[in-house]
Amino acid sequence: MKKSIIIFYFLLLYSVIQLISWGTLVVKLQPARMAMVMGEGSVFLFLLGVGAYFLHKSIKKEEKLREQQQNFLLSVTHELKSPLAAIKLSIQTIVKRDLDKARQTSLLSNSLKDIERLDDLVENMLLATKIENRSYSFPKEEFDFSELVSKITDRLQIHSCGCEQVISPSIKPGIKLMGDQFALSSVVTNLVENAVKYSGPCAEVEVELLQKDGHPFLKVADKGPGIPDDEKMLIFDKFYRVGDENVRKSKGTGLGLFIVKEVLQSHDADISVRDNVPHGAIFEITFN
């Protein structure tokens, strides 16, 4: 890519030099044509500059996309290896050691959580691919959205912080939705997982579901580092992740919020992002 950019700028510089040289030669031979040469030369330089600008912008965009895809592959590799290593260790411990029933149950329970994590990752990748290829039809039916949100928050709940809950749910029962239950479960899962991931250890994550002005309203609030104002809209782009990839501690694929945006658009729902106080981010979804 760098070699292509260097060649491009070399050819651009060569064209400008040739234009000036030929223009100077024509003016020397026929001074009366100076106005014509200046006019046509200016138009040519303007068009050349505009073309160079858009071509440079396209090359930079492609380079950024390639970098994001490389980061995506690295992140997916990490996301796959971590739970697989944990599952392998748990099974090896059960096989090699004479453990009591409670300890075996604990290890198997942790393995099931890691398997669910792998399942979420695979489902995200498949859903993102189908959405981008326009091969997913979003089949809609009426279902209990309150029950769905409750199940997801229970599954993602972390119980390693003493008696305190990491996820603090406030879910009004009986809220129904007409939509794609599978796709919307991915929306809730991605938002809650992000909130837990970016919050500090054992920091509270608020998940609230209620009826607002007659419409279902979902809020997920975290106490993480927050999202800069100039990145609040970019976070919904495919592969985009906040911050510098080289120093980022939290892992991820950059697909979650892309899926959230696409699924909600297909359900005529609006999502907004605002700052939490004193720190963190709040995602709010209104179903119309």
TrEMBL record:
It holds the Pfam family HATPase_c. GO terms for cellular component: plasma membrane. Keywords: Kinase, Membrane, Phosphoprotein, Transferase, Transmembrane, Transmembrane helix, Two-component regulatory system. It is an enzyme of class 2 (transferase). It catalyses: ATP + protein L-histidine = ADP + protein N-phospho-L-histidine. CDD domains: HATPase, HisKA. This is histidine kinase. The chain crosses the membrane at residues 7-27, 33-55. InterPro entries: BphY/WalK/GraS-like, HATPase_C_sf, HATPase_dom, His_kinase_dom, HisK_dim/P_dom, HisK_dim/P_sf, Sig_transdc_His_kin-like_C. It comes from the Bacteria. GO terms for biological process: cellular response to phosphate starvation. Its EC number is 2.7.13.3. One of its GO terms (molecular function) is phosphorelay sensor kinase activity. Residues 75-288 form the Histidine kinase domain. PANTHER family: PHOSPHATE REGULON SENSOR PROTEIN PHOR.
